[in-house]
Structure formats: C-alpha cells, structure tokens
TrEMBL record:
It comes from the Bacteria. InterPro entries: PsdUridine_synth_cat_dom_sf, PsdUridine_synth_RluA-like_CS, PsdUridine_synth_RsuA/RluA, RluA_PseudoU_synthase. PROSITE patterns: PSI_RLU. One of its GO terms (biological process) is enzyme-directed rRNA pseudouridine synthesis. It holds the Pfam family PseudoU_synth_2. It catalyses: a uridine in RNA = a pseudouridine in RNA. GO terms for molecular function: catalytic activity, acting on RNA; pseudouridine synthase activity; RNA binding. PANTHER family: MITOCHONDRIAL RNA PSEUDOURIDINE SYNTHASE (PTHR21600), PSEUDOURIDINE SYNTHASE RSUA_RLUA-LIKE DOMAIN-CONTAINING PROTEIN (PTHR21600:SF84). Keywords: Isomerase. Residues 30-228 form the Pseudouridine synthase RsuA/RluA-like domain. The keyword Cell inner membrane does not apply. This is RNA pseudouridylate synthase. It comes from Bifidobacterium actinocoloniiforme DSM 22766. The keyword Isomerase applies.
Amino acid sequence: MAGPFERHRWVTSEPEIPFELGVLYEDERIIVVDKPHFLPTTPRGMWYRSSALMRLRERLGEPQITPAHRLDRATAGVLVFVRDPSVRAAYQMLFQRRQVDKVYECLAPARPLTTPATGTIARLAPPAPFPLLRRSYIDKHPGHMQARELRAQPNASTLIDLAGELPAFNLAGGRGNATSSGPTFALDSSGGCLPGEGTTGRASTPYRAYRLHPYTGKTHQLRVHMASLGLPILGDDLYPIVINRPYDDFSHPLQLVARSLSFTDPITGQPMRFQSRVPLCL
C-alpha cells in the first residue's frame, strides 16, 4: 500500500531551493538533519522534490524514510527522520508525548516589552524582564495564513530568555548609532550568511538574540508569542503583518533556528543531543 507521500501529485516544475540539507547524525534507525530556511519538511503545494523528506529519500534511495516531527518551511534547524519502519512509532511518540527537549534561538528587537491583548506573562526573575513564561490560546484554521490568539484558557506555553546580547548592533551590521538603511543578507548553499544588496527598511532597529523553549507545539507558536510581546522575529513575513514576497525570493530568511534537540533514545536508552550549525544573520 502506498504511503501518503507516494500518493502526492507529481510536480513537473518547481523552484529550486538553493540550500543544502546537512546531515548531523545517522544510524540504522534515524537520520538527523540540519534543515535550511525555506525548505519544507514534507511535500506541500508547489514544493515536492524541494522538500527535506524527498531530498533524503532520493539521496539515500530509501523510500521508507518518514519524519518523526516537523519544522515550518521558514524555520531552520534540527529535524529528525526515521529510516527503520519497525521503530517509526517509538520515535514519533517521543514528540507527541512531549518527551523531547527543544531549544530555539531567534533575532528580535532589543526594546521594552509590550503588553499582549490576551494571555499571560510571568516574569521568572523579577524585576528583570527575562526569563519569562508566555502563555496564551492559539488558534490556527486551515487555509488561514496567520494564527490568532483568543481569549480562552491557554493552550500554548513558551519560556523566553536572552541568549547572549548583540551589543549595540543594528541591521547595517555596525555598532553604535543606527543608520537609516542597511544591506540585506543572503545565505550560501550551506546556510552561512552572505552580504547582499538593497535595504531592509528596518535598519534603525537594534536586535539581540533570544532563546525560546516551547512547552507546547502549536502552529507558529514561537512567532505568535514573540510578536505579541512587541518583539517580532527578524525576517518574519507573517507576524505581526503579512508581507507578500515572490516565492523564489530567498533574501529574507526568518531568523529562527531550532538550535538543539535532546531526548532519551526509545530503543537504546541512550541520551541523544543534536545541535544546529545554521547561524543567525543580521
């Protein structure tokens, strides 16, 4: 019987996503990759061969490979695939039961927090603003680009902390006073940062790195929670407002990386930890 991805319609022409899918670890049961920005986890819409799943299947000649979990197309970082069908459920259940420790990093504005319209903020080391626990009810309807926060019992929780200051940096790449415009950036084929041309339109904003620990896994949870605090993630084209860009414009990657992932291997009982090498780029 064919799996769900074998039944997916064949895309005869699709844009090439010019970033490599690096492998962090593999054994006879799993393959852990370092997914670049823009590459979807599985086939969707116009993307079929340009997905992490299909690239792995074609590269290794193993059509039975299946994702243990997913990352948004815009998010880079650690992603786990299962290559042995007999243990697929064991690894997938780790993620479904939230037995995996996930740490994300992002770049967002270095400015005071705003008060969200819904949900709660709990400062964990008052009076310092960070770390904090952000909780809200997130609702995402199929066919809607954005998720919404509603006035209801929270179903999404994120621990937000600072992840090392970027001292007085702005989008122009310099220190001290911000300029009115600055260069964009691009990524090389391995996910490293390259300078680009043009302006971002946001070069006057200083940015710093944040560390995010999601305790739940709602769609766009980290992007929604950061935007609700007045700290939208750099490069976010959905929050707080939708920015329409050409499908083949890879010059503004979302500065959100699934930095590390840890769990106890359900087969061997050994502790496993993987760390992404994808950089955050100003």
